[in-house]
Protein: Cyanate hydratase
Amino acid sequence: MTPIMAKSEAAELIVAARIRKKLTWAEIASELDAPLVWCVAALLGQHPMPATQAEQVCALLDLDESVAESLQRQPARGIDPALMSDPTIYRFHEALSVYGPAIKELIHEEFGDGIMSAINFNVDIARREHPDGDRVVVTLDGKFLDYRW
Structure:
């Protein structure tokens, strides 16, 4: 019996197929009728995909059933520590290092004792034109979970 393909290997095949077919992530997400950031995260191995979506994306990208099988597996979520040095990813770490304590204080002031869920969660990115150069707008939208004793 052959082992199920690793999610990282499936992700590499998906990225290569997407580039070779000249498809954008937005086009793939639209084809799957899925939220853009969730779709990309799932295709990169951070979420399990329902069988129908996994099969649909593999048909779109001309990938075989071993990739679809991998996409449906439960992931080990997180990031490869080596990727933390990527400038884009590191800037998010830097932004949260600088503004995280202030955001925490403001969440507690507005909502009380609790946290923002990263499970019941949506994230979106957008471009906003600005005279000094276009801006990246990242919206983190998580359910507030109060601490209960």
Remarks:
- Residues 7-71 form a domain with the 434 Repressor (Amino-terminal Domain) fold (CATH 1.10.260.40).
